[in-house]
């Protein structure tokens, strides 16, 4: 079909032109809005400036085709071949390109906002300064593509392959990169504020000077990545792997990185105000100094050497352990979860559920926290669902009275500060428990369940892994063993002793193991 005939039929109202062979045809500036061109061969054709808005080009051949400046908004290009096509300044807004092939295509400054490119192959493509706001690129292959200064705000890049991609200066604010492949990707100076990179592979990626405020990097793989001068303030780095990563002069203000692995990493000059120094691995860490100032302005520099690093950062998280002298069953599990959920409304610190280990004879309920100073307060509240609550709380009050009776002026400033913090946090917990006790329905889930009446043992563990037994029920661990004598069976009762009386030395030794801020 010659071009003139095509135009005449289109002008007469015909829209169905499927499976035509228009190889090398010159269709520059043509208007085929809404036309059905499914399966058409337009390879090496000239469609520069053409208007193909809302047309159907699914499974069309457009290899090495000139589409620069063309209007393709809302166009169906699902399964189309656009390899090495010229799509410079093309308008593909809201277009459908599911599974399309755009290998080494030229999409410089193209408009692709809202387009669906899921599972598309864009390997080696050039998308320099392209606009891809809220574009769906989930599962797409962008390996080796060039996206310098591209706008990908709010884009969906879940499990996309971005290995070796140049994203320097790109805007990925709020983008979803969950599980994405970003090995050796260049993200220098990129804006990833609020982006979700959980579980992403960023090994050996270049993130120098990148903006990652409020970004989610939990469980991300950042081994060998260059994060020097990057702004990670208030980012989530829980359980992230940062082995041999470069974090020199990075902004790590109020970062949540418990469980992160910084083995062999470089942290010199990092700004870590408000960031937990507990629960992270820092073996072979290189760190000459850190900035502890509020705004990262170097007004509070703390020098470190290899000897100080180990005491400055602790891998162990403080824990409260409630050991119940019976295995947990399903009704008890439900009641426990419901009760702690209700308690968390009064105590935000218990928002995270405890870890539970069920053995043949006991149940261990563990609460981890990011501060030693919370240990007694959390123990005071966490025991609430159990019959042993009152006895445990009495013991904790005795311990706090012993501490508060000390002459703080005779102690070192650090220890005196710890005791004041302990007292402040504990007094707050008493008020919270009083509020909880006024809520008569709060503990209703535990009523009549044997598990909560079983003897308990409450142990707290500080960040130096030192244990302190807060309470030990007299019948906890009591076992009856039958021994055979010559005349008759004899029942022997084996009883673990109660908690020993608290001495000031025992308490002070435990507090001395607290992480020093």
Topology record:
Layout: H1 3-11, E1 289-291, E2 301-303, H2 306-312, E3 319-324, H3 330-344, E4 355-358, E5 363-368, H4 375-382, H5 389-404, H6 413-438, E6 456-461, E7 467-472, E8 479-484, E9 489-494, H7 504-512
Antiparallel strand pairs: 1-2, 3-5, 3-6, 4-5, 6-7, 8-9
| Structural class by secondary-structure content | alpha+beta
- Overall pLDDT, averaged? 91
Would you identify the regions where 5 or more consecutive residues have pLDDT less than 50?
489-499
Question: β content, as a range?
Answer: 5-15%
Number of helices: 7
Q: Helicity range of the residues?
A: 10-25%
| Coarse morphology | elongated
Molecular structure report:
With 517 residues, this protein is α+β, with helices and mostly antiparallel strands. It has 7 helices and 9 strands. It has helices at 3-11, 306-312, 330-344, 375-382, 389-404, 413-438, 504-512, and strands spanning 289-291, 301-303, 319-324, 355-358, 363-368, 456-461, 467-472, 479-484, 489-494. The strands form 3 sheets. A 5-stranded antiparallel β-sheet has the order 4-5-3-6-7, with helices on one face. The N and C termini lie far apart (80 Å). The relative contact order is 0.05.
Question: Main traits of this protein?
Answer:
elongated, alpha+beta, 7 helices, two-stranded antiparallel ribbon, 9 strands, 517 residues, five-stranded antiparallel sheet
Summarize the model shown.
By secondary structure, the protein is α+β, with helices and mostly antiparallel strands. It is built from 7 helices and 9 strands.
């Amino acid at each position: 079909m010659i071009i003139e005939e095509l135009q005449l039929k289109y002008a007469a109202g015909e829209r169905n032109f499927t499976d035509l062979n228009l190889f090398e045809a010159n269709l520059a500036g043509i208007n085929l809005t809404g036309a059905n061109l499914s399966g058409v061969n337009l390879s090496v054709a000239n469609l520069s400036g053409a208007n193909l808005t809302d047309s159907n080009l699914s499974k069309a051949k457009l290899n090495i085709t000139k589409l620069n400046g063309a209007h393709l908004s809302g166009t169906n290009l699902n399964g189309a071949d656009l390899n090495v096509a010229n799509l410079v300044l093309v308008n593909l807004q809201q277009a459908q390109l599911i599974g399309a092939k755009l290998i080494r295509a030229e999409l410089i400054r193209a408009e692709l906002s809202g387009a669906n490119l899921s599972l598309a192959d864009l390997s080696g493509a050039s998308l320099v300064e392209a606009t891809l706001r809220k574009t769906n690129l989930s599962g797409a292959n962008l390996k080796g593509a060039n996206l310098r200064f591209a706008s990908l705000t709010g884009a969906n890049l879940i499990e996309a392959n971005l290995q070796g991609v140049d994203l320097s200066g790109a805007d990925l604010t709020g983008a979803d990169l969950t599980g994405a492949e970003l090995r050796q990707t260049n993200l220098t100076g990129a804006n990833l504020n609020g982006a979700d990179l959980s579980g992403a592979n960023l090994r050996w990626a270049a993130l120098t000077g990148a903006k990652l405020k409020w970004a989610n990097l939990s469980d991300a793989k950042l081994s060998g990545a260059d994060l020097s001068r990057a702004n990670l303030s208030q980012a989530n780095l829980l359980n992230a792997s940062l082995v041999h990563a470069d974090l020199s002069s990075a902004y790590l203000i109020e970062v949540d990185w418990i469980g992160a692995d910084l083995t062999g990493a470089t942290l010199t000059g990092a700004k870590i105000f408000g960031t937990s120094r507990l629960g992270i691995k820092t073996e072979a860490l290189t760190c000459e100094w850190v900035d502890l100032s509020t705004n990262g302005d170097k007004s509070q520099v703390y020098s470190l050497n290899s000897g100080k690093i180990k005491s400055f950062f602790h891998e162990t998280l403080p824990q409260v352990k409630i050991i119940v002298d019976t295995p947990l069953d399903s009704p008890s599990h439900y009641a426990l979860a419901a009760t702690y959920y209700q308690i968390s409304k009064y105590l935000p610190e218990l928002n995270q559920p405890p870890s539970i280990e069920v053995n043949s004879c006991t149940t261990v309920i563990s609460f981890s926290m990011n501060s030693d100073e919370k240990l007694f307060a959390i123990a005071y509240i966490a025991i609430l669902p159990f019959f042993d609550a009152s006895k445990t709380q009495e013991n904790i009050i005795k311990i706090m009275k012993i501490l508060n009776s000390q002459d703080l002026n005779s102690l070192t400033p650090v220890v005196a500060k710890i005791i004041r913090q302990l007292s402040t946090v504990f007094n707050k917990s008493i008020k919270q428990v009083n509020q909880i006790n006024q809520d008569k329905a709060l503990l209703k889930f535990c009523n009549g369940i044997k598990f909560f009446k079983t003897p308990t043992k409450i142990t707290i563990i500080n960040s130096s892994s030192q244990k302190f037994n807060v309470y030990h029920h007299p019948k906890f661990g009591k076992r009856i063993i039958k021994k055979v004598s010559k005349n008759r069976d004899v029942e022997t009762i084996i009883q673990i002793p109660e908690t020993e009386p608290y001495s000031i030395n025992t308490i002070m030794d435990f507090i001395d193991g607290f992480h020093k801020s």
